[in-house]
């Protein structure tokens, strides 16, 4: 039997739409053990969050078995409670997909390579920026090129930390993608090319002079923030704080600020209780994940 732990992820990181992602130390955990041929069992350690039909762990597991014509393989899959907030822009679906693919890979004695898993996860998720860091850990640049995901890692600076604002409402990625335009002007494209260049420079050199502008974006955030209630208040509050800058996490609604590590008084400056918010927002401080998905053999 194996225990599989997959980290949460934040995608886009401002200007890096569908390209940049970063793994976070919040986990979806499952266990899977081999069973008699055809004997498939799904157990929830807690109240089931979704039906089998909507369980992305199961969908990904069966998808991968099917690719190897091994649909008959039996298993006992246990869904342990997840730490990743669902439909909040923190990669819950990517983590579930990756967990399912890893489970299948264990059942077929690890025939898939890591690159196979990245490519399959991207095919299921539709974009590579959550699944790739969920597999590899750390911060990743990932792009679908000629039917394969090409990726490169950026070590996330250890003197930065993330302040993560998670609301008590969900936003589905498909709804949040539908508000995006089909086409962009040359100015908007140049804007993002410049910002992402500054972002990569800031992270690689740890010189944060340009980090605030580096997190700006014209591709998705201006269209998404208007459908996220309270976001204007949170953004205004962050602009007046010591944060280097902030961005929408993935498709939202979570908002993340990059702050200097150990910044004293940040929580006080952005006291959420003093704001006329319509919803409840929780401020989490979560460290970045370096390991990516982990498979551990247990008895
Ligand atoms: N890059 C994707 C998007 C991430 O912004 O729609 C979704 O989690």
H/E series: EEEHEHHHEEEHHHHHEEHEE
For the sheet with most strands, the description reads: 7 strands, mixed
In CATH's first tier, which class of the largest domain applies?
Answer: Alpha Beta
| CATH third-tier fold name of the largest domain | Ribosomal Protein S5, domain 2
Bound small-molecule species: L-homoserine
Calculate the terminal CA-CA distance, rounded to whole Å: 6 Å
Mean pLDDT: 96
State Rg. Answer: 19 Å
Portion in helices: 25-40%
Number of self-contained structural domains: 2
Going by CATH, the architecture of the largest domain would be 2-Layer Sandwich
Annotation field: number of helices: 10
Structural class comes to: alpha+beta
Beta-strand percentage? 25-35%
Net shape? globular
How many beta-strand runs? 11
In terms of topology, how is this protein built?
Layout: E1 2-11, E2 20-35, E3 40-44, H1 56-67, E4 74-79, H2 92-107, H3 114-125, H4 128-136, E5 139-145, E6 148-154, E7 160-167, H5 173-178, H6 186-205, H7 211-214, H8 221-224, H9 231-239, E8 245-248, E9 255-260, H10 266-269, E10 281-286, E11 294-297
Parallel strand pairs: 3-4
Antiparallel strand pairs: 1-2, 1-11, 2-4, 2-5, 5-6, 7-9, 7-10, 8-9
Helix pairs in contact: 1-2, 2-3, 2-4, 3-4
This protein binds L-homoserine.
């Amino acid at each position: 039997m194996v225990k599989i732990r997959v980290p949460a992820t934040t995608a886009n990181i401002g200007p890096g739409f569908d390209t940049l992602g970063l793994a976070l130390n919040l986990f979806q955990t499952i266990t899977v053990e081999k069973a008699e041929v055809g004997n498939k069992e799904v157990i929830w350690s807690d109240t089931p969050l979704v039906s089998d039909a909507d369980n992305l762990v199961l969908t990904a597991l069966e998808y991968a078995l099917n690719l190897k014509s091994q649909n008959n393989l039996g298993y006992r899959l246990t869904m342990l409670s997840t730490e990743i907030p669902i439909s909040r822009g923190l990669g819950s679906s990517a983590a579930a997909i990756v967990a399912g693919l890893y489970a299948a890979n264990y059942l077929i004695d690890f025939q898939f390579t890591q690159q196979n898993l990245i490519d399959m996860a991207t095919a299921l998720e539709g974009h590579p920026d959550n699944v790739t860091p969920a597999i590899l850990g750390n911060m990743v640049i990932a792009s679908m090129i000629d039917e394969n995901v090409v990726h490169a890692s950026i070590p996330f600076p250890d003197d930065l930390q993330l302040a993560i604002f998670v609301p008590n409402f969900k936003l589905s990625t498909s709804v949040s993608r539908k508000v995006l335009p089909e086409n962009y002007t040359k100015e908007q494209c140049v804007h993002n090319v410049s910002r992402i260049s500054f972002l990569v420079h800031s992270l690689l050199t740890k010189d944060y002079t340009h980090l605030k502008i580096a997190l700006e974006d014209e591709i998705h955030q201006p269209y998404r923030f208007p459908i996220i209630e309270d976001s204007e208040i949170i953004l205004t509050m962050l602009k007046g704080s010591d944060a280097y800058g902030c961005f929408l996490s993935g498709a939202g609604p979570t908002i993340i600020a990059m702050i200097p590590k150990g910044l004293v008084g940040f929580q006080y400056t952005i006291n959420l209780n003093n704001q006329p918010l319509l919803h409840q927002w929780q401020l989490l401080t979560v460290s970045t994940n370096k390991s990516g998905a982990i498979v551990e053999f247990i008895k």
